[in-house]
Design goal:
The chain is an alpha+beta fold. The chain is 49% helix and 13% strand. It has a four-stranded antiparallel β-sheet, with no helix packed on it.
Length: 397
């Protein structure tokens, strides 16, 4: 498979608008909301309205210009990763706090039927997967959903719910029958104002402090059976591939967030190196240059690889090609790379890099989560190994 890595001109406006928001809205308030954890960033409200209008316009344009057979498509997913990268150059936590753009929205886009897409198209949806009893093993879901008449009754506790106290809805992973295993796991759209839904607490975190992370309780929560995303049938042969499709959508976005933050740190690292009087010469062997320059060149090449993997995963999704392994590759590479870049940038910055006079120390803290959520580095490597070796989850744990 070959792809053209030169982005089409029609996407230039997406990149430009997202970068303007990152530069003029996100960066100026980045430190403010890092210090004011759990305070709602009201500056994002007007931007969210503009972003929604732009998304609707892009959707209309995409519907009006259907590609010919065999023609490459660069649509919703490519726009999503480009926007995420640019806005994360500004601030990852604020990017995750934009009203109407929760991780649950990606789940709805991945799994919902046309009627559900219409009904839930304008909601702000968080996503609730992780529970106190498990971390990255999504198949261990113990939250239950029991059919009672025309409703499902949901009971359980979810932790690490991004935008859990701000979103209007939450996509909840629950099992229809714990005795069957992963095949019985489904996702449900639940309005946050439904009786029985409560936010137990907000977490205090290392990074992305502008983004709220909640513990959400579900106690005899009744939702219409039409709120189950996808098919209610339990297919033991298919497993829970339906809900796992969500990650094929979201992992490239997280990779793009890492790419955007990594670029910000690389730019600052370059400035510090050049201010110290060291030229970055791409025509000379890295080993023949100053140690900081050699590290910069190595990290920049890793960053380029991360970006190309992310573009590939998004392109495949837009062109309806299975991208599960590519999504994991992009997430694994970008998540590890952004941590390498930001930590080295702090080191190069010395005392200034460690102080709050610059954003380097904040970026290093923000970067850590990008290697953890939406599946840890270790989980991504496991998924990639299974696919390459042709092993099942039972064969390779």
């Amino acid at each position: 498979m070959a792809i053209n890595t030169e982005l089409p001109e029609k996407l230039d406006s997406t990149v430009e608008q997202a970068h303007l928001a990152a530069e003029h809205i996100f960066r100026p308030i980045s430190r403010k909301y890092d210090k004011a954890e759990h305070e709602y960033p009201v500056e994002l409200d007007d931007f969210a309205k503009l972003a929604k209008q732009a998304a609707e316009r892009d959707k209309s344009e995409a519907a009006a210009t259907k590609p010919a057979a065999g023609e490459n498509v660069n649509s919703t997913n490519m726009r999503g990763v480009l926007s995420a990268a640019e806005m994360s150059w500004g601030d990852v936590g604020l990017m995750l706090s934009i009203p109407g753009r929760g991780l649950g929205n990606a789940a709805i886009a991945a799994v919902a039927n046309p009627e559900q897409l219409e009904r839930f198209g304008d909601v702000w949806a968080a996503m609730a997967i992780t529970e106190p009893s498990f971390g990255s093993d999504s198949a261990a879901v113990s939250t239950t959903a029991v059919l009672d008449g025309d409703d499902y009754v949901i009971n359980g506790e979810k932790i690490f719910v991004t935008s859990g106290s701000r979103a209007s809805h939450v996509v909840v992973w629950a099992t229809l029958d714990r005795s069957i295993g992963r095949a019985a796991i489904k996702s449900f759209v639940v309005p946050m104002d439904t009786p029985g839904v409560s936010v137990a607490r907000l977490e205090h975190k290392l990074g992305i402090k502008a983004s709220d992370t909640a513990v959400v309780l579900f106690e005899n929560v009744r939702v219409p059976k039409e709120n189950l995303l996808g098919s209610p049938e339990i297919d033991t042969k298919k497993g829970f591939g339906g809900v796992m499709q969500t990650f094929d959508n979201t992992r490239p976005v997280v990779a793009a967030m890492a790419v955007g933050l990594g670029r910000a740190a690389l730019e600052e690292m370059r400035r510090l190196i050049e201010e110290a009087g060291h030229e970055i010469d791409y025509d000379k062997p890295a080993a023949a240059q100053h140690a900081a320059v050699a590290e910069f060149i190595r990290l920049e090449s890793d960053w380029e690889a991360s970006w190309l993997l992310t573009l590939r995963a998004a392109w495949m999704m837009d062109n309806r090609e299975p991208n599960s392994v590519e999504a994991s590759m992009s997430k694994a590479k970008a998540g590890r790379t952004v941590n390498d870049i930001t930590n080295k940038a702090v080191e190069v910055g010395a005392s200034a890099g460690f102080a709050e006079t610059m954003l380097l120390e904040k970026w290093a803290r923000d970067a850590k989560i990008l290697d953890i959520f939406e599946g840890t580095q270790q989980i991504q490597q496991l998924i990639i190994a299974r696919r390459i070796l042709g092993k099942s989850s039972a064969d390779l744990r």
